[in-house]
Amino acid sequence: MSDALINGLAGAGGGIIAQLITYPLQSVNTRQQTERDVKRKKRKDGTIEQMCQVIKNEGWGRLYSGLAPSVAGTACSQGVYYYFYQIFRDRAEAIARDHKRNGIGDGSVGMLSSLVVAALAGCTNVLLTNPIWVVVTRMQTHMKNSKKSQPSPSSIAPTEKVLDPKEPPPYGTGHAIQELYDEAGIWGFWKGVFPTLIMVSNPSIQFMLYETMLKKLKTKRALVKQGDTGVTALEIFLLGALAKLGATVVTYPLLVVKSRLQAKQITTGDKRHHYEGTLDAILKMIRYEGFHGFYKGMSTKIVQSVLAAAVLFMIKEELVRGARFLLTKGGTTTRKTRSA
Predict the structure, then answer these.
(1) 159 vs 5, residue with greater confidence
(2) For residue 163, which of 67, 233, 249, 317 sits 20 to 30 Å off, Cα-Cα?
């Protein structure tokens, strides 16, 4: 089994577990990001209060709306990312070794090369998995939009039945896919792909910070413990959290724009809530909401993404370590059996 495949499968496994743990926070954060009320309230409900409101008005299930495609998307996304990351990383290391033989550099992959490797892996991941995340965003924000678009009782004939907002009609993955296709055709599944491609800088910055901190920690550990460069699961957890924190703070406004574009567009009524593209969304948000609009729900996102990234890194590294141990043990056992 190749090292790239091991990393890809381990990344998928770690991503699924992290997603299951943090999904309610992600659902609430997506609602916060896509909130388009231009009138600011004096006091916004906190994350816990909003979660309680969702549970009270819509039930526990709404916090997990879109979980199935999200888990599938996470498995695909993390698997694709780590697989191609390892391939590009191996190539960068080979180039660094060649340069060292030619008297250039010390044979290690530098910060800039790490950034390029992460960006290439991220772009490949975005282009392949963007349709999944558009569907997930639709499912996470469906209830809020459907509430706003419901007609008032006075505008409905007495014989017509008004749906109780607490008992919405089923809205599954198939409904979201069909709705999206009816609105924009096949290209609708790549809505928000431009800011998402720019958002590649998030995992790129994250991995650059992570690899840099990990390298420094291993170097320091080797000096103190005479060549021992092993790191613990807790240290991996903390490094992953710090790396994700830095990346999220820098790139969060792009994430808000992406969510606005991927959510169901309001084509009637107030045109301030309808976005025709990335630039239109940015200009309308600046004009009607100010720069504050680009940071809606950032505190929730920091908690969710930092926790998810830390869990993912920790579990992924443990899975890679376990897989390599089993493969090495199996190879040793096979060689012993053959020699006997």
Answers:
(1) 5
(2) 67
